Amino acid sequence: MATAQSAVHVEFSRFGTNGLRVRVTGTRSLESTIGYWNRIVDRVATDHPKCLLVLDELHGTELTPAQWNDLVQSMVGRGLEQVRIAHVKLFGLDHIEYCELYANIAGFDARAFNNLPEAERWLRYGSTSDVKPRSFEWARPREGTRR
C-alpha cells in the first residue's frame, strides 16, 4: 500500500543564481501536499534561496479553501517568510487563489500562477508591492489578540 509520501515525487533544482525550483508530481491530498511542503521547508533551511518556484503537477481532488488555510498556517514561522514564492499549477488554479490570499495575510511573499513564464518573470522582476497590499494589514492577527 502506497503512503501519501510515496504518492508524490519531489525534484529540486536551481532556479537562476539564488533560487530553488521544485517540481512536484503525483496524487494530490492534504497529507501529500503538507508532506511536500515540509520537504521544501527543509531544503530552504539548507540552501537559503531568495526565491522559490514550485511547479505543482499533482492530479486528483483539489484542496478546499479551508485545507489551503490549514497548509499555510502549518508553514508560518518555518522560514518561508524570507523567500519569494511562485506556486505554478499547470493544470488550473482551482482553489489555489485561496492559498495565495491566506499566504499573503500570513506575511508570505507569494503568488499563484497557471503559466510558468509569467511566474518566472514575477520571481525575477516583480515588486513586493505586487503581493503585499496594505489592504491585508487589517487581516493579520495582532499580538495579544485571538482569531
Explain what the structure shows:
The protein has helices spanning 30-47, 65-75, 96-105, 116-125; strands at residues 8-15, 19-27, 51-59, 84-89, 109-113. With 147 residues, the chain is an alpha/beta fold. The protein has a single domain (8-139), classed as 2-Layer Sandwich (Transcription Regulator spoIIAA). Strands 1-2-3-4-5 form a five-stranded mixed sheet, sandwiched between helices. α1 (30-47) packs parallel to α2 and α2 packs parallel to α3 (96-105). The protein starts with 7 loop residues before the first strand and ends in a 22-residue tail after the last helix.
CATH architecture: 2-Layer Sandwich
Shape: globular
Domain tally: 1
Strand order of the largest sheet: 1-2-3-4-5
Report the CATH C-level class. Alpha Beta
Proportion of residues in β-strands: 25-35%
Number of strands: 5
Mean pLDDT: 84
Report the span from N to C terminus: 39 Å
CATH topology: Transcription Regulator spoIIAA
Specify the helix fraction band: 25-40%
Q: Which residue ranges are poorly predicted, with pLDDT under 50 across at least 5 consecutive positions?
A: 128-134
Rounded to the nearest angstrom, the radius of gyration is 15 Å
Order of helices and strands: EEHEHEHEH
Content-based structural category? alpha/beta
With helices defined by DSSP (H or I, 4 residues minimum), what is the helix count? 4
Largest sheet, strands/sense/barrel = 5 strands, mixed
